[in-house]
Design a protein that fits this description.
By secondary structure, the protein is mainly α. The chain has helices spanning 2-10, 16-30, 43-50, 53-56, 68-82, 88-116, 124-250, 253-261, 266-272, 277-305. The chain has a domain at 183-305.
Length: 306
């Protein structure tokens, strides 16, 4: 592309150095670089010290504070583009408010500088940031409002559906009211029948069972008394039985043969022999045991029959 333009202007037999010179001169004519630098702070001074060509080889345009009509025009354009569904009347009112805010901040910054000696720079960038922040806040608030609106609508739908369901259940309850009354009457009659059966059937049987239980308890107490008495008699008889068993263990076959060889007349034995005290005592204990056992057998038969 450059060779064609160079051939038209300096000829087709141009050398490489001529072409390069043509390219540099054309870049100087056509290439424009715009640098926007803020004079606020030490950064601008530091850049000028590091790059002096910014001052020597550049055309400097100093932009001063925007007038009121420029502030309103910029604000109106940005608000109409950034904020959705905004009317021109609202945009006009907002542009005037934004301009007033920017101008008032600039005046307060001058008063702050005069009082404290500290500079607060209010630049067009600050104004643009104000407008972008306002647009983003409007979008966030709108999203939150729409979310709350959707929740409110859903709540209204739920309330409406609940009202319909409550009305349906109310009608069902009204329809079931006669049946409920009939059921209540039937339950009351059934309770009366149950009470009558309790008084006529259950209570007499309960009294009979309680009487039988009292008799059985009395018989059980008597049986326990007989048992204790038998155990006492048995405790007295056991030493005699053990003594008799020990005596039997001392007998020898010669003693038994000796008894067999004795030829004593029965009458002489009956008339001359007298039982010992231990013999009478053992007979008395045996008689008592037999009597108690007989009572126990009678009592056991009675319980079995009962």
């Amino acid at each position: 592309m450059v060779r064609k333009d160079a051939a038209k202007e300096i000829g087709e037999d141009a050398t490489q150095s001529e072409l390069w010179s043509y390219f540099v001169s054309r870049c100087r004519r056509k290439l424009h670089v715009v640098l926007c630098l803020s004079p606020a702070g030490e950064a601008f001074r530091e850049r000028l010290r590091q790059f002096p060509s910014l001052v020597n080889c550049c055309t400097i345009d100093w932009f001063k504070a925007w007038p009121e009509d420029a502030l309103q025009a910029v604000a109106g354009k940005i608000l109409l583009e950034s904020v959705d569904d905004i009317s021109p009347e609202v945009a006009s009112a907002l542009t005037s408010i934004c301009g007033i805010m920017h101008s008032s901040v600039a005046e307060l910054s001058e008063r702050y500088y005069a009082r404290t000696g500290r500079k607060n720079y209010v630049t067009p960038t600050s104004y643009l940031e104000l407008l972008s922040t306002f647009a983003s806040l409007v979008d966030k608030r709108r999203e939150e409002t729409m979310r709350l609106k959707r929740r409110y609508e859903v709540g209204l739908e739920k309330l409406a559906s609940s009202a319909v369901q409550v009305a349906g259940m109310q009608s069902e309850l009204e329809a079931l009211q006669p049946k409920l009354k009939e059921s209540a009457i039937e339950v009351a009659e059934m309770m009366k029948e149950i009470q009558n059966e309790k008084e006529t059937v259950v209570e007499p049987k309960r009294k009979i069972v309680e009487a039988d239980e009292a008799v059985a308890a009395e018989k059980a107490r008597e049986a326990n008394g007989v048992k204790e008495e038998c155990e006492n008699i048995l405790a007295e008889a056991m030493p005699i039985l053990n003594h008799a068993i020990a005596t039997l263990d001392t007998l020898k076959p010669a003693d038994i043969n000796y008894v067999k060889q004795l030829k004593i007349h029965r009458q002489l034995l009956n008339s001359s022999s007298k039982p010992s005290a231990s013999f009478w005592k053992s007979n008395q204990l045996a008689q008592k045991i037999r009597t108690r056992v007989a009572r126990l057998m009678i009592t056991g038969n009675h319980h079995a029959d009962y």
